[in-house]
Amino acid sequence: MACVVSWCIDFVLKYFCFAGNYGTTTLNMRPVYPTKTFPNHYSIVTGLYPESHGIVDNKMYDVNIDAFFSLKTEQKFNPEWYQGEPVWVTAMHQNLKTGTFFWPGSDVNVSGLFPNYYKLYDKYVTFEKRVKTLFNWLSLPEGERPDFYTLYLDEPDTSGHRYGPNSKQVVAALEDVDRIMGMLMDGLKEKNLTDCVNLIIVSDHGMEEATCERAAYVSSYVDKVDDFTVIQGPAARIRPSALPQNYFSFDYEGLVKNLSCRTPDQPMRPYLKENLPKRMHFANNVRIERGHLYMREGWQAALQKEIKYCKGGFHGSDNLFTNMQAIFIGYGPAFKHHTVVPPFENIEVYNLMCDLLGIRPAPNNGTHGSLNHLLKNPVYRPVHPAQLSHDTPCEANDPTPTDDLQCTCSLFCVCFFLFLIIRVLLDLNAKGPETDSLITSNMVPMFPKFKDVWTHFHDVLLPKYSQQLNGVNVMSGPIFDENYDGNLESNSKTIPLTAPVPTHFFVILTSCGNSTFNPANCEGPLQAQSFILPHRPDHTESCSDGADLTWVEDWLKFHAARVRDIELLTGLSFYHDRISVEETLQLKTLLKTA
């Protein structure tokens, strides 16, 4: 596998184009958030989100060991920072040999193992020498020769930071990288290895043009800034100054409140990490500070006027932004030819590499089999999870239940029945207005402010989407994720005789990919757009406090999610009867944003 630290290539590069045209590629590969170098490289080789593998940034602090990580200190080699299992360790556990010519984490004793062949990172080693060393390893006798290789090139990232992504220096760097790719591919051809070597070319993230005119300074919003610092950039974090003693006790909530809605059209939105969009998977790790500054596209944040990248280029922003997207090219005997697939997340690449190597992957955040459509002959055949409950008849001819189920319903009935479908027009609740019956406040508690949004979605947005898509199937329900780990919570945590308050509500809209058909009669692939909406008592996130709810649609899209994210949070599994398992996994792991 070769990694080019890069972004989308908008002009002709001979060898990239050859590999892309004759192999399998995608419009873009979505990096993980934050779109930084170390987090993304380690996600690619572990299949884990940063919150799961621990490398949450290029610079971070761990309160448990009271230590700071950076790429310029010896802590970079401390195995305690690296969680999860990189693919070279997985391969070695299953009796394969590995060689890495640079890759974040490959020069660290992860899980008690180094790759069989590896190099300490040295940016001054020429690209030519890196490729020649790989061919030396390829020439070793059988039994000594690696089965898996990585090659890392730090261009055009270096030139992009220095000169900006649209500079002539970046064009020159890309041309040089293309030349090195040619050296690699021509060398494989000369050794008659093109029919037995699978090559994956990836980048870790994109690049944005930097300017000080698009910088927000926290000191401009609050006066007292001596008790905290800001890890600056486009995914800025708030860290207490007194460490480790104030790491947990610091008033993150108060500071986030003071930074919220201070100016019209504010480019910096403060969040508690548990309130960030679920699609980011950036909360469940102690190394992620609780205070987070989400930045608008093209913007960065800092404590004071000290921004690192006032010129040149930067990255780290929302992984949905166009300029943050990465590349993926698969070329070789296992990959389909002349194939372009829809976008996918880089956490899926680990399982793909394991399949190419014929080894069992370690547990990871990817969905095994979701990239089977890239391969000529997939080796892993996924199946639907076993059904845990079965259909039972439901009779509701009389609005008064004949069986009280030993419940007293003077106020409400606590029912741990997670799934519910909105707009079932059965008058089974004689008390309260109709909207309450339809919108589930009698099943799960709902904040009044959120109910306004929920009603607006069903009364205004849903009819519009249904008209645009020729009908939609709607599935919705509550989510309980108090520990913000992104997984289903146990009922054992609930308080008896009380209704637990959802942290989120989910919505899945399913329509036919061919809009001449409605979902029920769809011919061809389905498409799904899903959302995980935070259940909050106010509209502070959107800085809105009036009757005008036109902002809801943008807020809805901001909290877009994969169907797979909803499954993990609810324990449900969708689309069992409609299409093949492999097609279903593609549908579930696609993050549709428009």
TrEMBL record:
<dbReference type="GO" id="GO:0004528">
    <property type="term" value="F:phosphodiesterase I activity"/>
</dbReference>
<dbReference type="GO" id="GO:0046034">
    <property type="term" value="P:ATP metabolic process"/>
</dbReference>
<dbReference type="InterPro" id="IPR044929">
    <property type="entry name" value="DNA/RNA_non-sp_Endonuclease_sf"/>
</dbReference>
<dbReference type="InterPro" id="IPR044925">
    <property type="entry name" value="His-Me_finger_sf"/>
</dbReference>
<dbReference type="GO" id="GO:0046872">
    <property type="term" value="F:metal ion binding"/>
</dbReference>
<dbReference type="GO" id="GO:0045599">
    <property type="term" value="P:negative regulation of fat cell differentiation"/>
</dbReference>
<dbReference type="GO" id="GO:0030500">
    <property type="term" value="P:regulation of bone mineralization"/>
</dbReference>
<dbReference type="GO" id="GO:0009143">
    <property type="term" value="P:nucleoside triphosphate catabolic process"/>
</dbReference>
<dbReference type="InterPro" id="IPR020821">
    <property type="entry name" value="ENPP1-3/EXOG-like_nuc-like"/>
</dbReference>
<protein>
    <submittedName>
        <fullName>Ectonucleotide pyrophosphatase/phosphodiesterase family member 1-like</fullName>
    </submittedName>
</protein>
<keyword id="KW-0378">Hydrolase</keyword>
<dbReference type="Pfam" id="PF01663">
    <property type="entry name" value="Phosphodiest"/>
</dbReference>
<dbReference type="InterPro" id="IPR002591">
    <property type="entry name" value="Phosphodiest/P_Trfase"/>
</dbReference>
<dbReference type="GO" id="GO:0030505">
    <property type="term" value="P:inorganic diphosphate transport"/>
</dbReference>
<feature type="domain" description="ENPP1-3/EXOG-like endonuclease/phosphodiesterase">
    <location>
        <begin position="364"/>
        <end position="581"/>
    </location>
</feature>
<dbReference type="InterPro" id="IPR017850">
    <property type="entry name" value="Alkaline_phosphatase_core_sf"/>
</dbReference>
<dbReference type="GO" id="GO:0004551">
    <property type="term" value="F:dinucleotide phosphatase activity"/>
</dbReference>
<dbReference type="GO" id="GO:0009986">
    <property type="term" value="C:cell surface"/>
</dbReference>
<dbReference type="GO" id="GO:0003676">
    <property type="term" value="F:nucleic acid binding"/>
</dbReference>
<keyword id="KW-0325">Glycoprotein</keyword>
